[in-house]
Amino acid sequence: MISLQVPSLQARGGVPNCEAPMVKLFSGEPSLRSVNFAVDLLGPRGLLRRASGGREVAEGRMARYSCGVLPTTIAGGTSENQRGIIATGGLGLPRG
C-alpha cells in the first residue's frame, strides 16, 4: 500500500519525504532476512552459483537472488539512513 502512495502523492504535486524511504526499507529488509535464513538453512552451498561442479543448490538460484538483495539495502541510502529519515520526517522525532 505504501508503494502505491508514492506515485499517487507525486501525481498530486507532493513530495514523498518519508513514504519513499518506508517503501525502500520495508522491501529491502525482509528480502535480506530471507537470504540470511536460506544460508542458515542451506549452508554455504546455498550461495554457490551454477556450474560449481554440481555442488550448488537448486541450480544456483539462491546465489543469483542473494547477489541482487544486498545492493537494495545499500543503494539510495543504507537502511539505517532510511530509518533516520522516517524518524525525523515522518514521526517528527528530534535528531540525536
Task: Describe, in plain words, how this protein is organized in 3D.
- The chain is mostly helical and 96 residues long.
- It has one domain.
- Helices cover 62% and strands 0% of the residues.
- It has helices at 2-11, 19-42, 61-74, 79-90.
- It starts with a helix and ends in a 6-residue tail after the last helix.
- The mean pLDDT is 83.
- The tally of domains stands at 1
How many helices does DSSP assign? 4
Main beta sheet: none
**CA(first)-CA(last) distance:** 30 Å
The radius of gyration over CA amounts to: 18 Å
Query: Which shape, going by the Cα principal axes?
Result: elongated
Report mean pLDDT, rounded to a whole number: 83
Secondary-structure content class? mainly alpha
pLDDT under 50 segments (min length 5)?
Answer: none
Number of β-strand runs: 0
Helix content: 55-70%
- Share in β-strands: under 5%
Order of helices and strands: HHHH
Q: Summed up, what is this model?
A:
The protein has helices at residues 2-11, 19-42, 61-74, 79-90. By secondary structure, the chain is mainly alpha-helical.
Notable characteristics:
single chain; 96 residues; mainly alpha; 4 helices; elongated
Task: Lay out the secondary structure.
Layout: H1 2-11, H2 19-42, H3 61-74, H4 79-90
